[in-house]
Amino acid sequence: MRPGALFVLWVVAASIVSCHVGPKPPPTTGAGSNQARSVAAPASAESRAKQGAHPRPTNALRRDAAAPPPSRAAVPIELPHDIDPGRPVTLAVPEDREVHVIHGEASTARAIVYLHGVCGDIRAIRSWAKAVSPFATLIALHGDEPCGDPSRFRWSPDIIAIDRRIRRAVDVVAQSRGGHLEAAELAIFGYSQGATRASALARELPDRYTRVVLGGSPSTPSVTNLSKTKAVVVIGGQYEAKDHMGDGVEALKRAGKRVAYFELPRASHGQYGPEAEPVLARAFAFLFE
């Protein structure tokens, strides 16, 4: 082929290639290349903040803004103005004898019922009144059978009748506290003869009398009677016969029960002694732990 024809063919081929490929873009290097990429992609919140722009809220921030405010703390319970925790008072019970009461603090709605010893002085509870009020309201009933002294009583063996009297007394005390008293589940504290009745109540009505204190118990604490209790406290005086109490405590421990023994220094049977308040405070702390 002649040189002139070859030149014409080369010109035609070059024109076809330039039409399909187009002009080559100018090269970009260094910062110019990074800037081109940043324009193509959305700027981050951090970069916008650095540039003085307001970042759009993320999904997490939007969820926080829409979340409800945290719940307010529970409003503290306020007892009626005439309730003075730790101070012994008496309350009338319809169709029954008055009850002696040591009101618990506003922080507790628990109740513990006290059954005194045979012809015992119900006012003995005053020696440890301040020990019980941080833990529960104490409700002390008179026995249902009179002794020779018109102010002293003993307990009949009628456990169901005793329970009915306790229910009425608890209702009265609950009303006096503006309803701030747990009535369905009670602790029971019996001293001497009262301890035998407390043990029997725990046996016959275990869902109601779940925590038991046996003070100066004349008989060995019974595993059978106390098998369903949540906690048991046994209290003895330093100068009274108490080996049988210790035997009962050990038997309850072997049965897997939660039980503890507390001793009243310089106290005989029928006495709480000079250190009743600190000893009973420890006993109640264990009972309601």
Describe this structure in words.
The chain has an eight-stranded mixed β-sheet with strand order 1-2-4-3-7-8-9-10, sandwiched between helices. It has a two-stranded antiparallel sheet with strand order 5-6. 30% of the residues are buried. The longest helix has 19 residues, at 3-21. The protein has a domain at 88-287: Alpha/Beta hydrolase fold, catalytic domain (Rossmann fold, 3-Layer(aba) Sandwich), CATH 3.40.50. The chain is an alpha/beta fold and 289 residues long. The protein contains nine helices and ten strands.
Can you give keywords for this protein?
single chain, 289 residues, Rossmann fold, 8-stranded mixed beta sheet, 9 helices, 35% helix
CATH superfamily of the domain at 88-287: Alpha/Beta hydrolase fold, catalytic domain
Radius of gyration computed on alpha carbons: 42 Å
Number of helical elements: 9
Which regions contain 5 or more consecutive residues with pLDDT less than 50? Answer: 4-74
From the 3D structure, determine the CATH topology of the domain at 88-287: Rossmann fold
Widest sheet: strand ordering: 1-2-4-3-7-8-9-10
What order do the helices and strands follow? HHHHEEEHEEEHEHEEHEH
Residue share in β-strands: 15-25%
Number of E-state strands? 10
CATH architecture of the domain at 88-287: 3-Layer(aba) Sandwich
